[in-house]
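>> received
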Amino acid sequence: MSAKKTAAATLEFPDNKLLRALSGPHAKHFARIEQKLNVGIDMRGNLVSVQGKDRERAGAILRALYLRLVAGESVTQAEVDAEIRFTDEARSHAPGAIKTASSRAVRPRSPTQAAYLEMMRQCPLVFGIGPAGTGKTYLAAAFAAHMLHEKRVERLILSRPALEAGERLGFLPGDLKEKIDPYLRPLYDALFDVLGEAAGRLMEQGVIEVAPLAFMRGRTLNRAFVILDEAQNTTRAQIQMALTRLGEESHMVVTGDPSQSDLPGGKAAGLNEAIAILEGVEGVGITRFAEKDVVRHPLVARIVAAYNRADKSADNSADNSSGKS
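>> returned
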């Protein structure tokens, strides 16, 4: 609203109902674009006037979001932020959605997420590395569901270390499923979000298997999509065992945040070594996410940034102390 009213671009949207959805509750989507691009947006009937230096970019964002609504997709604040991110990277709009089920689709919400999806299309083995909230596991589950929907794989196998570094489950109460469920819950959540009720049915049929990492030993996984989550908690032996399970026409995605390892000393030894050894190997792709790629609540990005600054400050203090001694 603070933008100069000297030049304007006028957009026409034929469906007033969709236009109301485009503007968002109390016009919060328009307000978000105004805030981020320093433009002014006014709506009269089915016409939208955009004023300010970035009016063309804002117009491109509005048109892209409107096309999502026409296609039957929803538009939330997250989708608005995603389109803004993509135009920050000089793209006209976000890449198309991937189908995860007959009535469900998922879109990348940042350029790095788009690159991650493209890498999963091209490479049998992909590492997704970076902080919490960047969509590493969620997008891996979405692409796995897409591959299943397209009948390019026959089953999904999702795994993670069940306990920090050790997988010692014996002392926990309950049967095996009750012991491991709390540690695999993030994988369940991602699956049910991208597949809906079909996830439960596919798990009952054995098409989707969720298991602790120890259960991978001795298996060869053919025509499967495998996700190894929380890989920062794997030892060298564990991650090497998991990577060598890959069979014919299979794909694997390994996700983790090296800064959040529960291994002794807090070092993601197995994951870091695997990346160092395999980077540049044909068929292996590595996507590195950063704090700017966080797509959860905006506060999560600020939390990640604050901790990164604190870690750097602590490292500098330690270096100064060692230098003085």
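>> The first strand starts at residue 8 and ends at 12.
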